[in-house]
Design goal:
The protein is of the alpha/beta class and about 190 residues long. It contains six helices and eight strands; from the N terminus they run αβαββββαβαααββ. An eight-stranded mixed β-sheet has the order 3-4-2-1-5-6-8-7, sandwiched between helices.
Length: about 190
């Protein structure tokens, strides 16, 4: 069976963050883990000054105001300090071996006052995702097998507290407590 649920979940995550990006006038946006179709950047291309997409599963390319970078995040973020207004990281943190390192990198590349919009599965979603994946086949089992950590509010708060200058402004659970949504800010 084809993993048909993933595009729906991806679209719902994308809708969750767009309204926050719309608060900025022509921002520079970085979508970490943008995916092969870089849907979010395509959706935003007429609203942003510049967009970067980083993913280890894409090819390097540029068009108008969007630049895609094939890169493994375990090595950091290949952008300059204080360059980005808004960073999105939708369903990526759970795949990383060193989430503290990537949050430090996010803090480095965000401009003072910049925003990180992050979604990550909750600790309660693990059995549900495994059932949808391994039993029903409607979520890609390779993606689920690659999950390193599932999070709750306390775990995310503790993780963010280890990065000086980066803090959680707001945390929400969504999709029936299956996902965390974090609005993080870099201090001025």
């Amino acid at each position: 069976m084809k993993p048909v649920l993933e595009p729906v979940l991806s679209h719902l995550r994308m809708l969750k963050v767009i309204k926050y990006i719309d608060r900025y006038s022509s921002p520079i946006v970085l979508d970490i883990g943008c995916g092969k179709k870089y849907w979010l950047l395509n959706k935003l291309k007429n609203k942003i000054d510049k967009g970067y997409g980083i993913d280890k599963h894409i090819t390097n390319q540029s068009s108008k105001n969007i630049k895609l970078i094939n890169y493994n995040l375990e090595h950091g973020i290949p952008l300059r300090n204080n360059e980005i207004d808004v960073i999105t990281m939708l369903a990526v943190l759970e795949h990383l071996n060193d989430p503290l390192f990537i949050l430090s990198e996010i803090n480095r590349v965000l401009k003072p006052g910049g925003m990180i919009l992050l979604t990550v599965p909750t600790i309660w979603s693990q059995p549900v995702l495994e059932f949808l994946s391994f039993k029903l086949g409607i979520v890609d089992p390779i993606l689920i097998q690659d999950h390193k950590t599932y999070y709750n509010r306390q775990m995310l708060t503790e993780l963010f507290s280890e990065v000086e200058g980066l803090f959680i402004e707001e945390h929400k659970y969504f999709q029936c407590f299956m996902n965390n949504f974090v609005i993080g800010l870099k201090g001025n």
